[in-house]
Design goal:
Shape: globular
Radius of gyration: 18 Å
Number of domains: 1
Helix content: 25-40%
Structural class: alpha+beta
Order of helices and strands: HHEEHEEEE
Length: about 140
């Protein structure tokens, strides 16, 4: 009976630890979304890896400096910048976050609303979780 109890404790501990790590990644993603909405490029720069790359739905690669320029731009205003239906998959110090990113706002005075299917690769370093890569595909809402 004792070996069964030990196995159950090991499995339960693994599940609980995974959940807390998943929550850390989700919290970091939410933090980044809030920083983007608030135009806080300096703080957001700490979350993006130095060699970060985002592949957009048009196939364009955007680097860290491109993202920070977008965040700083007074031309962009976001009412909504939220990822839902989030799932996190983990292997050691790497997490892949998938979800649906909804953005609503204006860019250069033009209103927009977009839903994107996103895949983000997060890596745990000494300072915490940083975003290494992302991919976004537009979801047709028509």
């Amino acid at each position: 009976m004792k070996p069964v109890l030990l196995i159950w404790l090991f499995i339960a501990n693994s599940i609980w630890n995974t959940s807390s790590v998943e929550e850390e990644v989700i919290a970091r993603d939410k933090e980044l979304n809030q920083l983007i909405s608030a135009h806080q490029a300096k703080d957001a720069s700490l979350i993006y890896a130095e060699d970060f790359v985002l592949t957009t739905s048009s196939g364009k690669a955007k680097l860290k400096q491109d993202m920070l320029a977008d965040i700083s731009s007074p031309d962009l205003t976001l009412e909504i910048n939220e990822t839902t239906q989030v799932k996190v998959r983990l292997i050691e110090n790497t997490a892949v976050l998938t979800g649906i990113l909804q953005q609503k706002g204006t860019y250069k005075g033009n209103a927009f609303y977009v839903k994107l299917c996103v895949t983000d690769t997060w890596v745990k370093v000494k300072s915490g979780w940083i975003l290494l890569a992302g991919h976004a595909t537009v979801i047709n809402t028509k």
